[in-house]
Structures are given as C-alpha cells and as structure tokens.
Amino acid sequence: MATPAESPADARAAAAGRENRWKAFTVDRTGAPGVAVVRLAGPGRGNMMGLDFWDELPRLIGGLDADASVRAVVLTGTGKHFSVGLDVQEVLGPWLGRLGAESGPTAAARGELLRLIGRLQDGITAVAACRKPVIAAVSGWCIGGGVDLISAADVRLASAGAQFSIREARLAIVADVGSLQRLRGIIAEGHLRELALTGKDIGAERAERIGLVNAVLPDPEALLAAALGMAAEMAANSPLAVAGTKAVLNDDREERIARGLRHVALWNSAFLHSADLVEAVTALGEHRPAEFQGR
C-alpha cells in the first residue's frame, strides 16, 4: 500500500525534531525565511561550553553550511547569558588531575593536550569557515570561550546589558581558541592588548565604541529582532555572491589565523603546566583572588 504523502506541517515537525537532537544547542528556522537561529543551550549555568558543545559545534555548523535552504545563521544564547565560557572541570578535568605531580606531565600527556586544544580550535574555526553569514547576538555574559566564538562570526550585535571578557590571563592561561588571533581583524591592537592582558570586563557601550560589536540594542528582544532583520537581508542576496564575498574576505586573514592557532597550541601544550595554574584552579574553587608567583 502506498505511503500517504507527508504534509508540509509534518515535514516541518520532522525537521525540527532532527535539528533539536543536539544536547548543547537548539536550532529554530521560524524567525525569518532562510535563517537558522542557533542557541547555545548549556548544560549548566550560563551556557557553559562543555564536552557536548565542542563535539557538536563543528557538526552542527557543517550541517547548516551544507543545507541549501539555510542562507544565514544567527548565533545566540538561551536564557540571560550568551556564554560564561569553557567548562574547565569537564573539558580539562583529566589534564588538571595531573597537575599535582612534581615532575609534571609526560611528553605523551603534553601531546594529548595539544590534540585537545586543536579540537577546540577546530570547533570555532568551523564557524569562521561557514560559507553562510553568521551573526552573533549577545546578551548578558560573553566570557572567554564566548569571545572566541563571537570573534569567528561575521557580525556581532549586543543588548545594552552585555558584558565581554577575555579572562584567560586571570586563570593563568594563554587564550588559545581564537580570540587573540581573530580579534586583530576586528578591534585595534591597543584595545586587544588591554583586554587580553588585564582580563577586565567591558560593557556593551565600550564594546561598540572599539568595534567589537556593530550595534547595541536596548534589550534582548530588540537584539534578536535586529539580528533576524540583518540575517534576512543577507539571506535575500545571491547565495553564490555571499559565499564568494566571504571567501575573498577570509582569504589571507584565515592563513594568518591558522599560523597563530598552531603557535598558541604549541605554547600551551608546553607551558600550561605551572604553579600559577594550580593556584588559579585552587583559588577558583575557594572563591578567592589568586596570588600568582610566576612559577
């Protein structure tokens, strides 16, 4: 017996079910024609970037990139915040467990860390390499890995309450997933060095003033509306011309960024093990300021 034809409503429901199989993301295509809204969805507070996030990000973005019905992507958070960054305990927990050894990590363990950093870098690079325009819409906190992620987007928008921080230096870590490399093409060198070397937090107003975001909207609702409107404008253009424009804009920039990513991955795999990092992790657990000795 012939199978009944699937109704448009059934097709949309089936597609939604396939897209929302993700653990760390949700995908919604109802906001504007040709636009996929990707929301960071945890787990944990503030859309922390755990193992599921890093496993799913390149596959999710790769799928949208290959889908001809998607012409632009809006990347945003679920709840009050965009992302509070890397889930250090979940992602680096096995490595952190070795820090107490006086002799430090073995060459094999350093190689393991090098591969882990490369895996995280590849996830963010998948966003930068996407042929479809990606617009980051940021509300609340955007810390560490969150800044890495939005630096790979084509355009960044923020709500008035957004806060940004390249916080790794405060944790005795060299930021190694892309913000130091990609922000050089987005904000001026002096601002980048100030933010990366102090680890300070900045609000949306200053982020707009230095060019980190293109515009600041009054609240999260206005932010999403603006992001969807811009994405719809991009989606209405020739997809071939849009992809070609991105390829030309990315050409020499991505080659420079790739060199920088290799450099920082090698640096951290060699030097991440330190007394300062042990102190940073301990201080974080004890809810106190760290006291670094440069060892």
From TrEMBL:
InterPro entries per the UniProt record, alphabetical: ClpP/crotonase-like_dom_sf (IPR029045), Ech1-like (IPR045002), Enoyl-CoA_hyd/isom_CS (IPR018376), Enoyl-CoA_hydra/iso (IPR001753), Enoyl-CoA_hydra_C (IPR014748)
Transmembrane stretches, start-end: none
PROSITE patterns: ENOYL_COA_HYDRATASE
Keyword vocabulary terms for this entry: Fatty acid metabolism, Isomerase, Lipid metabolism
GO terms, biological process: fatty acid beta-oxidation
GO molecular-function terms, A-Z: isomerase activity
Superkingdom field: Bacteria
Pathway(s) this gene product operates in, as recorded in its UniProt entry: Lipid metabolism; fatty acid beta-oxidation
Similarity comment text for this entry: Belongs to the enoyl-CoA hydratase/isomerase family.
Name of the protein this chain belongs to: Crotonase/enoyl-CoA hydratase family protein
Source species: Arthrobacter wenxiniae
